[in-house]
Automatic annotation (TrEMBL), chains A, B:
Protein's name according to its UniProt entry: Peptidase
InterPro entries for this protein: ArgE/DapE (IPR010182), Bact_exopeptidase_dim_dom (IPR036264), Peptidase_M20 (IPR002933), Peptidase_M20_dimer (IPR011650), Peptidase_M20A (IPR050072)
Domain of life: Bacteria
Keywords noted in UniProt: Cobalt, Hydrolase, Metal-binding, Zinc
Pfam families membership: M20_dimer, Peptidase_M20
Organism: Metabacillus fastidiosus
Cofactor(s) for this UniProt protein: Zn(2+); Co(2+)
Length: 422, 422
C-alpha cells in the first residue's frame, strides 16, 4: 500500500504542468452564476478522458422546490449543467463523494485587480484569477488524484463519485440536485479553500430582514411621532443580547480562540425618506450564524421568539411588532466528528506527506457540506488548497504547490479509504 | 378712526364673494417651484387694478449667491418672477411689509385627495386645494385689506409694501431677493397658516448629513471589522445628548408646553450593502432645530464641536471622525418681542374683532420671517388664517370665514400702524 502511495505521489509531481494548464483553462472560463456551461465542458472532457461514467444534467427546479433546504433566485437551470462522474470500484470498499463547485462569484471592481481575473496568469508559483482559490484549484486537485489512480492502474474497491456542481455561491441548488438524484456515499470531501487545514465543522448562516415600524411626524414636532430609527436601535440591542445567549452556549474547544463563533450581523440598514420627518419605517437586513450542530429551523424559531419579547419592555413593540422575514440564501451548517475515520485518515495522510500535524478548525462560513450531511446524510469534511483570505476578493490566487500537495494527500486518502485491490 | 375701521370691515364682508373667486383663480394655477408665473400673473393683475406701484422681476442667482443665507437647488429663476406692489403713504407714518409666498409644495399622492387639488372647490364654507392654507388664503386676505383701504378712500401715512414671493418652500430665495433689492419697512406681517394665532417666534432649522465610518469584514467573522451601523447608534445617542443640552437652555415661557422646543431629528438612515458583510459606511440625514434667538452659524459650530467629542469616549472616532455636512435647505429662526408695537396692535385688533384674547405662540417651523428679520432687519410677526395641520397634506383647505376675519384684522391694523390722514 505504501508503495502504491509513493508511486501516485511521484506521478502527481510529474504532472504538475498539465494540472496547471487544466486549471488555467477552467479559470479562463468565467463561470459566474448562469454561465457555468463552458467551464463544465472542460471538466466533462477531462472526465471523459479519464474514462469515468458521466452523468450530465440540468437540475430541475420543479423537482427541488418542495425541498425544505432548496433556495435559488433563478427561474431555471437551463444551460447550467451539473456533472457527476463515477469511478466504479470493484466492491467491498467504502465509497466517497469528491464535491466541488464550478460557479464563481463575479470579479467585482477590475481596478483592484493586478492581474486580469480571467487570464489565469502565473507569477511566483501562483495562478491568479477569479475562482482559482474558490475553488477550481481544489477541483483540479481532485481530478489529479483520480487520474493518478487510473494512470497507475490501481483498482479501488469503493466508488469515487466526483461532482462538479453549480450554484454553491447562491444557495447550493447544484449539490441538492445531486443528492436528490440519488448520489450517496460513505463520506465526502469538499476542497473549499481551507489553506490545507481540516475543517470538520462549518458555521451555517441565514439571512433575515426586519421591518421596524414608527409613526411619522414633522421633525420640528418630533415628539408627536415615534422614530423607527430609534426603535431600530432597540432592535439591534436586542439582537446583540440574543447573539450573546447563542454564543455563550457554545463550549466546543474548536471555537476557543473565536471571539464570536456564530455572530448575528446586521449588515444593512435603511429607513426614513426625509431629513425633516420622523421615520416611520426602518428595514434591517442581516445574517445569523448557525452552529455546526444546530438545526436551522430551531435557530429560526429562537430568533423569532426572542424578537417577540421586545413588547415586554417596550409597549410600542406590543402594538407594532417587528416584521421578521427569512430571505435570500442560507447555508446549512455542518459538523463531522474529529474521530470519524475519514478525518483520522486525512490527518494521517497529511502528516505523512507534510511532515507535521494537520490543523483542525471550524470555518466561519458554510459550504455545500451542510447539504451533503444534513440533506444527503453523507458525513463531510472540508479540506482544500486555497486560501480563505483571497476568496471573493480581487487578486485571488492559488499556490500551485498547495494544489499539488492536496492532490497527493487526496490520492493517498482514496487508496486508504476506498481500499486498493491487491 | 374707529368709524373708519367699521367701514372697512363692512366693506370686506360685502366683498366675500369676489375674494373667494380671486382665491379660487390663484389656487387653480399650480404654482409649484419653477411654475409660479401664471399664479403671479393673477396677483399682478389684481395689484394693477388696485393702482399699486408694481415692481416685477426675476431674482438673479448671481446677485444673491454670495449672501450667507442664500440657498437654492435651482440654476436660475427665469419665468419665476417676484412681485412687490407699493401703496405709497403720504409720509410721517410707519411702513409695513405684507409678505406672502406664491409657491406651493406638490400635491403628492392624488389618491389621498377627496377634492381635486387644483379645482378650488367649495364645501361647508371651506375652499379646498393645494396652497389654500399655505398660503394663498393669507395672501388674498392681505390684498383684501389693501383693497378695503383704497376703496374706502382712506389715505395712510406709512407705506404698504405688498410682496408676493417665490421659493419660500425651498429656502427663501424670493424673499432674500426682495431684501437685496432694497425693500425695508418698520415691521412686517407674514400670513402663514397660524390658525389666527400670533406667532412671535419661529423655530428655524438646518439639515445635516453625517457619514459614519466602519471597517468592512465578513459577517461570519464580524469581530474582524467595525460596524458602521453600531457606530451610528453611538452618534445618534450623542445627538440626543446634544438635543437635551440645547433644549435645557430654553427658558422662554412660550415653550412651556412644548416637550422639545428645538428637536434634533435624524430622519433618514442608510448604510451597508450586503446582509453578510459588516457595514463600513452609514449615512444619517436629519434636521436640527434652531431657537428663535439663536445665530445659525453658532448653532452649526455647537453641533460640530459636540460631534468632535465622540473621540474622547470612543477611540474609533478619533481615528475615523464623523463627516458633518450641512446640506439642502435651512430656515432661519425668527423672534419678535411680544411687547413690540406691531404685536400689541395686532392683539388689540384681534380682540376688538374676535371678542377674545389672541393666543401668542411659537411655531415649530420657520418662515421667510427669519430672512426678513435677520437678513433684512425688519421685525416680523406671523399671523394668518390657514391651519398648520393641513399644510403640505392632502385635502388642504381654508375656512372662508377665517380668511375674511384675517382681512378685517389686517385692514384695521394697517390703519393703526401706518396711520390714517384725517
Amino acid at each position: 500500500m505504501e508503495e502504491l502511495k509513493k508511486r501516485v505521489c511521484r506521478w502527481i509531481e510529474s504532472q504538475e504542468q498539465s494540472a496547471v494548464t487544466l486549471l488555467q483553462q477552467v479559470v479562463q472560463e468565467r463561470s459566474i452564476q448562469g454561465e457555468e456551461a463552458s467551464a463544465q465542458a472542460i471538466i466533462l472532457e477531462k472526465c471523459r478522458q479519464l474514462g469515468l461514467a458521466i452523468d450530465l444534467w440540468e437540475p430541475s427546479k420543479k423537482l427541488m422546490e418542495s425541498h425544505p433546504h432548496f433556495f435559488t433566485v433563478r427561474n431555471h437551470f437551463k444551460n447550467s449543467p451539473n456533472i457527476v462522474a463515477l469511478l466504479k470500484g470493484c466492491g467491498n470498499g467504502k465509497s466517497i463523494i469528491l464535491n466541488g463547485h464550478i460557479d464563481v462569484v463575479p470579479e467585482g471592481d477590475l481596478e483592484q485587480w493586478e492581474h486580469d481575473p480571467y487570464k489565469a496568469e502565473i507569477e511566483d508559483g501562483k495562478v491568479y484569477g477569479r475562482g482559482t482559490t474558490d475553488m477550481k484549484g481544489g477541483n483540479i486537485a481532485m481530478l489529479m488524484a483520480i487520474e493518478a489512480i487510473k494512470e497507475n492502474d490501481i483498482k479501488l474497491k469503493g466508488d469515487i463519485i466526483f461532482q462538479s456542481v453549480i450554484e454553491e455561491e447562491s444557495g447550493g441548488a447544484g449539490t441538492l440536485a445531486a443528492i436528490l438524484r440519488g448520489y450517496k456515499a460513505d463520506g465526502a470531501i469538499i476542497p473549499e479553500p481551507t489553506n490545507m487545514k481540516i475543517f470538520t465543522k462549518q458555521q451555517g448562516s441565514m439571512w433575515f430582514r426586519l421591518k421596524v415600524k414608527g409613526k411619522a411626524a414633522h421633525g420640528g414636532t418630533k415628539y408627536e411621532g415615534v422614530s423607527a430609527i430609534e426603535k431600530s436601535i432597540t432592535v439591534i440591542e436586542q439582537l446583540k443580547q440574543l447573539e450573546k445567549i447563542r454564543n455563550d452556549r457554545i463550549k466546543d474547544p474548536l471555537y476557543k480562540n473565536t471571539p464570536i463563533p456564530i455572530p448575528i450581523n446586521v449588515g444593512k440598514i435603511s429607513g426614513g425618506t426625509w431629513p425633516s420627518s420622523v421615520a416611520d419605517l426602518v428595514i434591517l437586513e442581516g445574517r445569523c450564524g448557525i452552529a455546526p450542530n444546530e438545526d436551522i429551523l430551531e435557530a429560526k424559531k429562537e430568533v423569532e421568539k426572542f424578537l417577540n419579547t421586545l413588547g415586554e419592555t417596550d409597549g410600542w413593540f406590543k402594538e407594532n411588532p417587528v416584521d421578521l422575514e427569512w430571505f435570500g440564501a442560507r447555508w446549512l451548517p455542518n459538523e463531522m466528528s474529529s474521530d470519524h475515520e475519514l478525518v483520522t485518515l486525512l490527518k494521517k495522510e497529511y502528516k505523512a506527506l507534510q511532515g507535521e500535524e494537520a490543523v483542525i478548525e471550524a470555518s466561519p462560513w458554510g459550504t455545500d457540506g451542510g447539504l451533503l450531511s444534513k440533506a444527503g446524510g453523507v458525513p463531510t469534511v472540508v479540506f482544500g488548497p486555497g486560501e480563505t483570505k483571497v476568496a471573493h476578493f480581487p487578486n485571488e490566487y492559488i499556490e500551485i504547490k498547495k494544489m499539488i500537495d492536496t492532490a497527493k494527500i487526496m490520492a493517498c486518502l482514496l487508496i486508504e479509504w476506498c481500499g486498493a485491490v491487491d
